[in-house]
Specification:
single chain, alpha/beta, Nucleoside Triphosphate Pyrophosphohydrolase, five-stranded mixed beta sheet, 24% helix
């Protein structure tokens, strides 16, 4: 199952990424804030990030991670983050859950893929940014909640799903919950626009 899920996703992402690179030399990013990878700056001011996110729901509660930005401000998001070079997103999501929350996890199923372009005027990096997020349903198997060591996740909390709407959160939370709720065969749900409590 892992090979089939991971292989299809990697193939689709590779095709999309190559299309972007063929049209323009881009700034590739790996961090949550869209910081460029050293030496990857090309001719245009565009950045690209591939990330994997964990959707874990139990007893009507979803696991959320609270990020504190170095620039100030708090945003809730799903556990997850950038896929490292040559890393399978399947492995990346398990690694990110462990790093950010302290939990051990296993992937239960691939939920879908979200692609969004953040205009330069709204992106933290100041350049147009495309984020491709791969969403997995995961199950916690062990470990204990803790803040992220040397990271920007200050706490992770099991949050009642109805309470999510009152949080200042990343649009990724709403995308993940929609994918889990509707289980679309296409792995795609309508975009969640940023605004109000919903952030990019």
């Amino acid at each position: 199952m892992r090979s089939m899920m991971g292989g299809r996703v990697l193939q689709a992402v590779a095709i999309a990424r190559q299309a972007v690179e063929n049209s323009c030399q881009c700034v590739h990013t790996n961090g949550r804030l869209g910081e460029p990878i050293p030496g990857a700056v090309g001719r245009c001011r565009v950045s690209f990030r591939l990330a994997a996110y964990a959707l874990c729901v139990t007893d009507g509660r979803v696991l959320l991670a609270r990020h504190e930005s170095p620039r100030g401000g708090t945003t809730w998001s799903l556990p997850g983050g950038g896929v490292e070079h040559a890393e399978d997103p399947f492995d990346a999501v398990i690694r990110e859950v462990a790093e950010e929350t302290g939990y051990d996890a296993v992937v239960e199923r691939l939920l879908g893929v979200d692609s969004r372009v953040i205009p330069a005027a709204e992106a933290w990096s100041g350049r147009e940014h495309q984020n491709i997020g791969i969403f997995y349903q995961v199950r916690i198997t062990g470990g204990a909640l803790r803040p992220e060591p040397d990271g920007d996740v200050v706490e992770s909390v099991w949050t009642p799903i109805p309470a999510v709407a009152q949080l200042r959160r990343s649009a990724l939370v709403d995308v993940g919950l929609a994918l889990a709720r509707t289980r679309p065969a296409t792995g795609h749900v309508p975009p969640v626009p940023a605004g109000g409590l919903i952030q990019h």
